[in-house]
Amino acid sequence: MNGTIGFLDHRRAISGYVILIDGGAVSWSSKKQELVTLSTMESEYVGATHAAKELIWLRRLLGEIFRSLIFPIKHEEMIADIFTKPLSNIKVKKFSRGLGLLPV
């Protein structure tokens, strides 16, 4: 077995996002980025770009369904961090509640 399997792929960052409408998750993603970035900042920028593209598409879809619906884009804590980063127990519980996940 070749020990380098997976090694060539280890430099790609994992990015994710969750889009909430009225407290409920309507779109989410967590996946390895398709390219290798040179810095954490560049990786965050790539992840934010994918989230923004999804948000723009969803906003247009909802605009076609509900012509008068205009909702602001809010940026608070990154609730999608629960999918991509190690977090403290307090943040895991807070983000889980924010996504509507039930405690086990």
Verbal overview:
The chain has one domain. The protein has a two-stranded antiparallel ribbon. Strand 1 and strand 2 (24-32) form a beta hairpin. The chain has three helices and two strands, in the order E-E-H-H-H. The chain is α+β, with helices and mostly antiparallel strands and 104 residues long. Mean pLDDT is 78; it is low at 1-7.
Largest sheet: number of strands, sense, barrel closure: 2 strands, antiparallel
Helices and strands, in N-to-C order?
Answer: EEHHH
Kindly state the number of beta strands: 2
What is the 3D form? flat
Q: Calculate the terminal CA-CA distance, rounded to whole Å.
A: 39 Å
Structural class: alpha+beta
Number of domains: 1
Unreliable sequence segments: 1-7
* Mean pLDDT level: 78
Give a nutshell description of this structure:
Helices cover 38% and strands 16% of the residues. It is of the alpha+beta class and 104 residues long. It has one domain (7-98).
What is the fold's blueprint, element by element?
Elements lengths: L13 E8 L2 E9 L7 H26 L15 H4 L4 H10 L6
Antiparallel strand pairs: 1-2
